[in-house]
Each structure stands twice: as C-alpha cells, then as structure tokens.
Amino acid sequence: MIQGKIVKALSGFYDVMADGEVYTCKGRGLFRKKKITPLVGDHVEIELEHDGTGTIVNINERTNEFVRPPIANIDQAIIVSSAVEPEFNPLLLDRFLVLVEHKDIRPLIVLTKEDITTDEQLQQLNDYSKTYKSIGYDVLIVSKVMDDLRDKIMPYLSNRLSVIAGQSGVGKSTLLNQLDERLNIETADISKSLGRGKHTTRHVELYSIGDGYVADTPGFSSLDFDEIDLEELRFCFPEFLGYQDDCKFRGCLHINEPKCAVKSAVEDGDIPDFRYQHYENFYEEIKSRKPRY
C-alpha cells in the first residue's frame, strides 16, 4: 500500500497523487456499506492493481470537511468578493467568514475588480479592507486584470490546501487562471439580468500551484448555518474574543444580557457596528431554524 492525496473526484472515480504519480482509483465496497464517501483532499492509502489503477483501502482522519462542496482537510479559504459586478456585499462576505471560522479554516479575503470602480466605490472598498485587517484578517485588493496577482497571492499558497469561495461571478475561475495559465478553466460572463455569473465549475479538483494545492470547486452551494449552534456563533467573530471574558455572565451570547462587554465595545466603536448587526442577523436565523430530527 502507498500513501496519497485525492486530487480529483468524478463519477465514482478518484485521482490520487502518490509519490509524484497520479493513479485513477475506486473506493472499497466497504465504504459504500458504511456510507463513507472519499473526498478530494483526503489523505488515503491505496493498493495498486497490475494495470496501474488502484483501490482506496483506507481514509485517514480528517481535520475538517465540507459537504457542499465535498472537500476535506482545508487549510485556507480564499474568499473572493468583487467591488462591482456583482456589487460588494459585506453581509455575504461575513456569511463566508462565519462558515470557515466554524471549521477552524484560515480565511484570506481577496477583493477584485478594483480597476473598474468609481472613486467613491474604491474609498468604500479601502474602508472595508482596513476594518477587516483590524480584526486580524489578511486582505488583498486586486484589479480585474490582476497582473500583480501572482506576486500578491503566491506567498499565501505555500504548503496549504486552499479552497476558492465567493459569490458566483466575482472571478474565482479567472483568479485561478491568472495563478496558472496552464489551467485554462472555463469562465462565464455576468448575467446582466441577474447580476451574477453562471456556474462554470462542475466538479472538485485540486491544482498544484506553487508549493501548495488550490481547489477549484462549484463553490459553497449552501450558505446556511445548519452545523452552527447559537452558543458557537459568537466564537466565529474573532473581534468578540478579547471582550467576552469581561461580560457579566459567563456564556453571554451578546444579545439581551445586561452588562455585556461586547455590546459596550460596539457602542464605543471598538467593534464595527455592521459586523455586530450581521451577528444579530445570523443569531436570529439560527434561533428560528427548524429543529432537526
């Protein structure tokens, strides 16, 4: 048996990178019986057949996983958000951030299409960039052409498995093509009526770029918080963490409790007001979620 990583999954077949070679493999029948699905990003053991194909016989324990898109062991989420076409949406960006924070995945925010903004839009983009940087996030602002993208983003890819996330049409596939022109991933124009791009990515695949792997996926088709409990949400906002020990009540949810240090920090301008509003929105969304049985 040899150790490898699944780099592509399509129609029940898995491409496994092992010792510098890619082997087309199938999963053991036992996986189906146990309802275990091998995922792109999985560290696996394979047995090779005489014809050069292989069988996945074991899947190592995962550090994290997503169901939609189906991928495991993600180190970093590159969250792409455009300044225009589609218009910058901080609420949507914060949904992505909460989802990856909950999985303990490092986020990198990439704001695109800087070159086609108005002066007012660019000022707004810079203001948001400063806010997210003050929280502790890495933020890159790049142009639509992205000539400087490789130099800006390559240091963040080294020795990591990164997934690209973001609203359809913000330039995720364009970003990958700029990183490595050999990929030639299909891109689609923005739909003028809907203000969003058509989905062009059909399966999950890892690309070796620099010293790391980047996943081109169909994106997060589900942006709900099904896996997040009310008690967990507050930990998905890093700027809350330095204040919540000063709340009067241990386990304070920062909503209706008196003498809440987080709400005081919002009033004092130390926590961005729009971030706290989004926290309240997400809290109510999770609170009103129908129970699962």
UniProtKB/TrEMBL annotation:
Its main location: cytoplasm. InterPro entries: G_CP_dom, NA-bd_OB-fold, P-loop_NTPase, Ribosome_biogen_GTPase_RsgA, RsgA_GTPase_dom, RsgA_N. Belongs to the TRAFAC class YlqF/YawG GTPase family. RsgA subfamily. GO terms for cellular component: cytoplasm. Keywords: Cytoplasm, GTP-binding, Hydrolase, Metal-binding, Nucleotide-binding, Ribosome biogenesis, RNA-binding, rRNA-binding, Zinc. It is found in: Cytoplasm. Monomer. Associates with 30S ribosomal subunit, binds 16S rRNA. It is an enzyme of class 3 (hydrolase). This is Small ribosomal subunit biogenesis GTPase RsgA. GTP binds at residues 112-115, 166-174. Gene3D superfamilies: Nucleic acid-binding proteins, P-loop containing nucleotide triphosphate hydrolases, Probable gtpase engc, domain 3. GO terms for molecular function: GTP binding; GTPase activity; metal ion binding; rRNA binding. Its cofactor is Zn(2+). Residues 63-223 form the CP-type G domain. Signal peptide: none annotated. Its EC number is 3.6.1.-. Zn(2+) binds at residues 247, 252, 254, 260. One of several proteins that assist in the late maturation steps of the functional core of the 30S ribosomal subunit. Helps release RbfA from mature subunits. May play a role in the assembly of ribosomal proteins into the subunit. Circularly permuted GTPase that catalyzes slow GTP hydrolysis, GTPase activity is stimulated by the 30S ribosomal subunit. Binds 1 zinc ion per subunit. HAMAP family: GTPase_RsgA. The gene is rsgA. Residues 72-221 form the EngC GTPase domain. PANTHER family: SMALL RIBOSOMAL SUBUNIT BIOGENESIS GTPASE RSGA, SMALL RIBOSOMAL SUBUNIT BIOGENESIS GTPASE RSGA 1, MITOCHONDRIAL-RELATED. One of its GO terms (biological process) is ribosomal small subunit biogenesis.
